[in-house]
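User:
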Amino acid sequence: MRQVFFYGAISLDGFLSSATDDLQWLFDTSLDKEFDISDFEDRIGTVVMGHTTYRETQRLSGAERIFPNKEKIVFSRSEKGNIIEGNYVSGDPVAVINRLKAEAGQAIWVVGGGEIVTTLLKHDLIDELWIQIAPVVLGTGKRLFEETEQELKRFELVSVDKIGQLSELHLKRIQKSSTSPVN
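Assistant: Predicted structure:
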């Protein structure tokens, strides 16, 4: 069964982007060196994201073809059809991820946005999180974890790394146990 990862950056107060999808605050964060995620990307076969994340990633990269050689699934309520190396889908993210997990292949990278991440977390479908935290407070914007009524989700802290001014947390979901006491 394929694993599902979230890998992405947030502000100190938990926002993925400003309310207008601006990410300049992230690009203004000093990294001290080239930020290389090629080892992570080598583990990925499919990239999943919302339409806004897809378009903003294209715009910021200056390339129409993003995440080359990876299958891309882009969730959209309005767009239809094919994209380069992928498709728009309008279905339930839970059903789509469950289908992808059952297929043979490399891991699935959920790039964003927050609505998709929150939905997948609610259904215990994200196995690991890599979250880079920038030391900036935005005040408003689009949150990584949207407010929702759901049961507590626990993760194990695997590592903490410093990448320039970013703090990167790597976390693994703790599997539910039927013998665990309820708190």
